[in-house]
Amino acid sequence: HPAISGDAGSSHNSVAWCWDMGGGTGQAFPLAVAGNIKHSTTQAKIGASSILCDASGDTLKFGGYGSKGRLGFGTQDFTVECWMYVNTLGNHNEIMNCGNTKWRFAIEGNGKPSWNHSGSGAELTSATAVSTGSWIHFAVCRHNGTSTMYLDGVIKDTATDTNDYTNDDFTFGAYSDGNYGADAYLDEVRISNNARYYTTFTPSTTAFTSDGNTLLLIHSDTSNNSTTFLDSSGAALNTDGGIDSNVQANIPYGQSIVHYRANNGVATTVGHGLDSRPDVVIIQRWENGTGHWI
Description:
The protein is mostly beta strands. It has strands at 3-7, 14-18, 32-34, 38-40, 50-54, 59-62, 78-86, 92-98, 103-108, 113-116, 124-125, 135-143, 146-151, 154-160, 170-172, 183-192, 214-218, 236-238, 245-250, 255-261, 267-271, 282-287, 292-293.
């Protein structure tokens, strides 16, 4: 029984059903769009397009979820990274943040990237300003209590970092209220719960693939002006049903997490990725515009 029949439709954008007693790593999450953030083929680093923010309050976001918290790194290692092409430098270009101040990456008005986790001064700052009109790879990694900022794989700053990073909503392109918007193209945004880099490295120029440490992965590589954004952090495509679904194995409990997009109230079948029909189905619905599962 590769699929379950039922009404896969909804007035909301996406539905996930699962038998999920483990962590959330690997679930595919749609991102809520605000403003006119979109994919653009004007600039592209990897694939056919990149994500355009125009400093007018454009954001992508999803809600923190679960008691463990998806982006609550705690005191463990982590990596936050992306490719960026800065159009103009303003008073403050907010690239991405968790809860505005739980952690945040921005390019300050002087063109220098900064990383902050306290809501006040930056803990990491590049002494080198970025250039407009060219692609730059940015990464911050914490490894064994030390965080390091990299630009194009070159170390720009390090600091002792024993901060306990708590979970909150993730916002991409500006603060959650739309202020301090970035004027930039971005590509291959990845957040991981391990340290991907320990020393100088050469940034990848091919699309990232998900693994067990990937918490969030946003690709572009799509048509011009598309406003569909999905987290690609691990759920494989399943085409067994009447509509496609994304299935992620929940190894500790031998079950699966399934995500699919509704089909305007049309009853259909959804592939579940198990060898036999599940006995229990737990359903969560994605609330458009809020960035939360309900």
